[in-house]
């Protein structure tokens, strides 16, 4: 599990930060974000479920394979899953990024909706690559996150 202190100290020179407010309640948004197969448009990737979680389908230990364009596929594994409030994951196999992690924090809003605070951190072995990936990822998530739930 990644605590806020650990997230802030994790190596990741490039960070993507996106916020979005849904009109749907946290349980609806959590279910949409937790379902691996829903996330393809969010990342501009083809996503395949590799493994269900240790105690629930999309919980801790659940793994998805992502394939983005011609790049090599990589796996992301859920490391924390707190129903209706928090999902954390990391790259667990492959990929060109280093130290990649993601954190999705869901907070109920006063009107019954959900505020999402989404941060992704990573580095890349080639100079300039992390910055390019960061811009593409920020654009893709910002453009498509609202389609996951109303």
From TrEMBL:
Coiled coil: none annotated. SUPFAM superfamilies: Bet v1-like. It comes from the Bacteria. InterPro entries: Polyketide_cyclase/dehydratase, START-like_dom_sf. This is Polyketide cyclase.
């Amino acid at each position: 599990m990644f605590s806020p202190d650990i997230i802030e100290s994790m190596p990741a020179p490039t960070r993507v930060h996106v916020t979005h407010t849904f009109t749907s309640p946290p349980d609806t948004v959590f279910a949409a974000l937790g379902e691996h197969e829903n996330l393809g448009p969010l990342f501009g990737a083809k996503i395949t479920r590799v493994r269900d979680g240790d105690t629930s389908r999309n919980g801790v230990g659940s793994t998805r394979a992502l394939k983005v364009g011609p790049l090599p596929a990589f796996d992301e594994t859920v490391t924390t899953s707190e129903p209706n409030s928090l999902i954390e994951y990391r790259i667990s196999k492959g990929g060109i990024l280093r130290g990649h992690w993601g954190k999705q924090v869901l907070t109920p809003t006063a009107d019954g909706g959900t505020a999402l605070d989404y941060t992704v951190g990573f580095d890349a072995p080639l100079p300039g690559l992390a910055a390019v990936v960061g811009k593409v990822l920020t654009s893709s998530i910002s453009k498509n996150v609202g389609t996951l739930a109303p």
